[in-house]
Amino acid sequence: MRKLLNTLYVTSPNTYLSLDGENIVVLKDKTELLRIPLHNLEGIVAFGYTGSSPALMGACAKRNIALSFVKQSGEFLARIVGEVRGNVTLRKTQYRLSDNIEDSNKIARNIIMGKIYNARWVIERATRDYAVRLNVDKLKGVSKTIANSLKLVEQSENLEQLRGYEGEAASQYFSVFDDLILQQKEYFYFHFRNKRPPLDNVNAMLSFVYTLLAHDVAAALETVGIDPYVGFLHRDRPGRISLALDMMEELRSVYADRFVISLINKREVNTNGFTQKENGAVIIDDETIKTILKAWQTRKQEKITHPFLQEKLEWGLVPYAQAMLLARFIRGDLDGYPPFMWK
User: Fold this and answer.
1) Radius of gyration for the alpha carbons in the chain, expressed in angstroms and rounded
2) Could you check whether the bond before residue 197 is cis, i.e. omega within 30 degrees of 0?
3) What is the pLDDT of residue 82?
4) Which residue in 199, 170, 179, 162 sits closest to 279, CA to CA?
5) Which end of the chain is more exposed for a tag (fewer CB within 10 A), N or C?
6) What predicted TM-score, i.e. pTM, was given to this entire model?
7) pLDDT in tens, 35-90
8) What CA dihedral angle connects 99, 105, 109 and 110, to 10 degrees?
């Protein structure tokens, strides 16, 4: 359990939430784990919950405390909010910002700055940790080019320009992605990013893990009351979670890509778990998917210090922290959206 930005995250499985006076009480096997006054909270998120008392749900609705339920896997289930507050004001402001190209560019620019900063960090970290095994000069050269892209992004004036700079930085980053794969090189190699369908083992894993990340980010946005379908960089398209795709950009390299590379380098996956069809598409078998999902859940429990909040939290809560920060910006509590810039 963790209290972050006045939101209580109940991550312990098989817990029951109840009301005692003016307090929320978290119980497990009828044993009290935690008690917090309701007036200290603006939101409660319960993962893998056993249940919640009607009294607590009513008290949260009366006090405008958003009570959200999420599966242990991260899938959003439901959100209970008060009659007065709801999400109308927050979402209407989000829609106005999305409709305004200048405002969209400002928000998207911060997101892409986070993405490029983190991509460069991944490369710099590799040159530090594996200097003997890597062509450091090559990676340092790419890192320098990406740093230049970061400066250009800061000066971008519109979304088209921003997408161009982001594309150039992504191309540079992926040009050395194969260098970061240190084991099983015969079967796990990366020449370029391909999808729909993925044509090699690494791209198949990246596509699958990106789907998991997008799912987690969408759930986080739903939890704080933001519409995951209305984005700033990714524009509206029926059925596309555009804002979730925006928000996951800054987490791709440091969270998803490093996870995939780790699975390969630690030999937690092997080529037997992949099959190539006649059309070239690579399919991951069920057992390997289970292995990836189990490792993903373990990675989500690893603790880090959030670079902006300066609080310790699990990797799995980073999307929720970023969603809350975005909601605070939309409400006017922050001057700008602070992207996740890993250090």
Assistant:
1) 21
2) yes
3) 60
4) 199
5) C
6) 0.80
7) 999 988 877 888 776 689 999 999 988 887 878 787 765 566 777 766 544 578 89
8) -50
Query: Is the CB of residue 220 less than 8 Å from the CB of residue 207?
Result: no
* Token pair of 281 as six digits: 């598409």
Q: Which two tokens stand for residue 151?
A: 């400066």
The amino acid at 180: L
* Strand 282-284 relative to strand 16-20, pairing: unpaired
Residues in contact with 2: Cβ distance below 8 Å, sequence separation at least 6, in sequence order = 8, 9, 11, 313, 314, 317
Sequence-ordered list of residues with C-beta below 8 angstroms from that of 101, at least 6 positions apart, any chain: 158, 159
Q: Render 28-45 in DSSP notation, one character per residue.
A: ETTEEEEEEEGGG-SEEE
pLDDT, tens digit (0-9, with 9 covering 90-100), for 303-313: 999 999 999 99
For residue 63, what are its two tokens? 């006090």
Cβ–Cβ contacts within 10 Å for residue 3, how many?
14
Residue type, 154: E
